[in-house]
Every structure is written in C-alpha cells, then in structure tokens.
TrEMBL record:
MF terms (GO), sorted A to Z: large ribosomal subunit rRNA binding; structural constituent of ribosome; zinc ion binding
Organism phylogeny: Eukaryota, Metazoa, Ecdysozoa, Arthropoda, Hexapoda
Keyword annotations: Ribonucleoprotein, Ribosomal protein
Sequence ranges assigned to domain CCHC-type in this UniProt record: 98-114, 117-133
Protein name: CCHC-type domain-containing protein
Keyword DNA repair among record annotations: no
A GO BP annotation: translation
Gene3D superfamilies in the record: Ribosomal protein L11/L12, N-terminal domain, Zinc finger, CCHC-type
Species, as recorded: Brassicogethes aeneus (Rape pollen beetle)
Length: 194
C-alpha cells in the first residue's frame, strides 16, 4: 500500500545529469518512485526542461508537491561559462553620435572643425540660449530642433550606422539602401577647377 501524501508538503530532489538527456529510468526510480511519481514521465520532463543545456553536466532540482514535479536547472559556474562560450557573440554596434557643436553626424565636438551652430534654428551667429527663432533642423530643414530623435535624417543615419555594424560592408553600400530624402545639390557646387 503506497504511503499517504500530504498535498501541502513540498520535497526537493536534486539529480545530476547531462542536459537534454536522461540515463536509464532505473536510475531515477530509487529517488522518484517512493514519492509516487513515474520515473519515465519525470525522465521525459527532465530531457525537455534541460534541452538548452544539451551536453553539459548540470544539477536538476525537482520541486515535488501533490505528486507534481516542477523542474528547474541549477547550473554550476563551469556549465554557465561553457554555455556562454558556445553562444555566438553579439554584434557590437558603436554608439551613434551627433556633434553638439556643428550638429552634423559621425563625429564629436572634440574633433569638430566646423563653426558652432544654434541647436534650435541652425544659425552660426548665436547660441541656443539666446535664440528667439522658430526651430529649424539643419539636417532635413523641417520645423524641429536639429537634435530631435524624430528627424528623418537622424533616423536614416542611425539606420546606416546599424547596417554597417551588422553587415560589415563599406560605407557606400548602405547609402544606396537608405537614400537621402534631401534634394540633390546643384552640380555647380562641386566644380573645383575649370
């Protein structure tokens, strides 16, 4: 006759196994059987619950209450390190920068060689604290400050920065994928010597 079970009683059982697989159910039976659980069902649950740790030696904690087992993995430091080394590295995306001085993209004020501009209206003859003009973006020409995160040119430049980091291509390829919405400049501006 099986022993009576208290439905509120909680028992913890710890098992060492290799993630994603379970040995013979006969090895589980001595620990699981007396608690009224099926070794085959628990073995299948352990295999499913440890699939992310496939091939690594781990400890599995079974929280048993009312003939139900909740499975959780208790990894060792070694298995955490090995698992982290197996995962592919995350792509580093360098921070996207906009010069706070000239308001152009891709460099900082420390190395800026341009004249400072007002963040609000884009003029070079005064600073923002004194500006009474309406906002006008220096990048797209619309009615918002040049540092706005909703600026079309800011979004375009940020997309180019992300694309460059993720795809490891030259700077010119994303320029064609993310074309500028600004009108093309006059060709006369680019005539150097005649």
């Amino acid at each position: 006759m099986p022993p009576k079970f208290d439905p509120t009683e909680v028992k913890y059982v710890y098992l060492r196994c290799v993630g994603g697989e379970v040995g013979a159910t006969s090895s589980l039976a001595p620990k699981i059987g007396p608690l009224g659980l099926s070794p085959k069902k628990i073995g299948d649950d352990i295999a499913k619950g440890t699939a992310d740790w496939k091939g690594l030696k781990i400890t599995v904690q079974l929280k048993i209450q009312n003939r139900q087992a909740a499975i959780s993995v208790v990894p060792s430091a070694a298995s955490l390190i090995i698992r982290a080394l197996k995962e592919p590295p995350q792509t580093y995306i360098p921070p996207f920068i906009q010069c706070p001085s000239c308001l152009r993209f891709g460099h900082s004020a420390k190395i800026c060689k341009s004249k400072p501009r007002c963040r609000k209206c884009g003029n070079e003859d005064h600073i923002r604290d004194e500006c009474q003009n309406t906002p006008k973006c220096t990048s797209c020409g619309k009615d918002h400050m040049a540092t706005s995160k909703t600026c079309e040119e800011y979004i375009r430049q940020k997309s180019i920065n992300d694309y460059l980091a993720r795809n490891q291509v030259s700077f010119f390829e994303p320029q064609q994928i993310f074309p500028s919405k600004k009108p093309a400049p006059n060709q006369e501006q680019f005539l150097y010597w005649s």
